[in-house]
Design the sequence.
């Protein structure tokens, strides 16, 4: 399902990896770990003016068309004030502002709230999480983001196409074959119904994928508990490796589609927050393979011309 081309240099061994059926590629250079650029954790804890803390979240955040927010356990869910999707919702996960570890119930409640909100929007949904500023989070207060668009993001489009083509040519399901190969590989971590493994051709540092036995969001509710336990297990793994920040995205096909796609959860570790590590690269750039841009190219052209008249 993938190939490895290994090159030995005077300064170490490089691997060029490619997935055969998607064309996705990466380069792995293990010797770069020796740079030790990941510093010790410096977690901003100042909660002043945080719109997600409980004394503010119920007054400064927008509501859904019925005038309500979704409340489940500690979580509060509402539309994103600055959306970059046709449907874009936010779930504040915890009452506490700065959180080091998460309970299963906190993750379950956040996921269920995301599902409830995203089911109101027709499209290709995803559930996403930027944790800490160095992973692109604009706020320290833990929060998930749900997206649903009428067209799939780039990575989903790639895998839908690969799933369709593989089924046509091979007569079997692409994801079933991946699961079989991962289960007997050195990359396998844990799980059966949801199989978690270190992805063979990672899109980010220490990428772990959990392959679900479903395709669409409307099938997700019965698997939330297992998914939450898997996410917590991967977070613990990252902690053991010394990293705290991460990105997570869970991808689904559009309800009603039948093209062989399987929902999957992807997580990557990011550099620890420190005074110089705020990032503008988040889940869209790293996991969806689609950058979110703030400046219109035409406005940049107009500005340049105006300033140089």
Sequence:
């Amino acid at each position: 399902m993938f190939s490895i081309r290994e090159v030995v240099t005077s300064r170490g061994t490089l691997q060029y990896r490619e997935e055969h059926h998607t064309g996705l590629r990466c380069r792995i250079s293990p010797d770069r770990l020796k740079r030790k650029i990941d510093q010790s954790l410096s977690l901003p804890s100042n909660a002043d003016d945080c719109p997600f803390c409980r004394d503010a979240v119920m007054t400064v955040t927008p509501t859904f068309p019925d005038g309500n927010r979704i409340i489940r356990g500690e979580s509060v869910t509402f539309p994103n004030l600055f959306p970059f999707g046709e449907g874009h919702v936010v779930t504040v996960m915890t009452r506490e502002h700065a959180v080091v570890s998460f309970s299963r119930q906190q993750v379950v409640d956040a996921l269920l709230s995301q599902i409830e909100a995203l089911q109101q929007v027709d499209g290709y949904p995803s559930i996403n999480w930027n944790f800490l500023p160095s992973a692109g989070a604009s706020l320290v207060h833990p929060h998930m983001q749900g997206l649903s668009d009428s067209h799939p993001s780039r990575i989903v489009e790639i895998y839908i196409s690969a799933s369709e083509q593989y089924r046509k040519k091979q007569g079997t399901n692409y994801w079933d074959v991946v699961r079989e190969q991962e289960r007997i590989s050195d990359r396998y971590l844990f799980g059966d119904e949801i199989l978690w493994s270190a992805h063979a051709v990672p899109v980010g540092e220490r990428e772990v994928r959990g392959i679900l036995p479903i395709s669409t969001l409307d099938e997700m509710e019965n698997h939330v508990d297992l998914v939450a336990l898997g996410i917590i297990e991967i977070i613990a793994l990252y902690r053991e490796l010394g990293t705290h920040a991460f990105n997570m995205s869970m991808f689904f096909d559009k309800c009603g589609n039948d093209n062989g796609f399987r929902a999957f959860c992807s997580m990557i570790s990011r550099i620890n927050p420190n005074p110089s590590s705020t990032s503008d690269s988040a889940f869209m750039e790293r996991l969806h393979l689609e950058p979110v841009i703030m400046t219109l190219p035409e406005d940049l052209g107009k500005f340049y011309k105006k300033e140089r008249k």
Observations:
- The helical segments are 54-60, 104-118, 154-170, 174-183, 224-240, 283-288, 297-307.
